[in-house]
Specification:
The chain has 73 residues and is α+β, with helices and mostly antiparallel strands. The protein has 2 helices and 4 strands; from the N terminus they run ββααββ. It is globular and about 30 Å long.
Length: 73
Amino acid sequence: MENDILKFGLFTPSLNIEREEMSRASIINLLLDHVPDDQEVGEAIEMIYFATSGRYEGDGWLIWFAVRGKTLH
């Protein structure tokens, strides 16, 4: 599950990125590098690790994702 290919977007004050393919581990590394709030990052990482799709809006940043072949709700 950790290396599932995801479609995702990450928008922070310093980074705007949308990709068709990226592993969960790579997305988590981006969050750790670009989001300063550890609690929000922890909540988003938990969602990314266990869910097949989702959206998390933190204080000044946003991430959305879906596992390939799954529908984003």
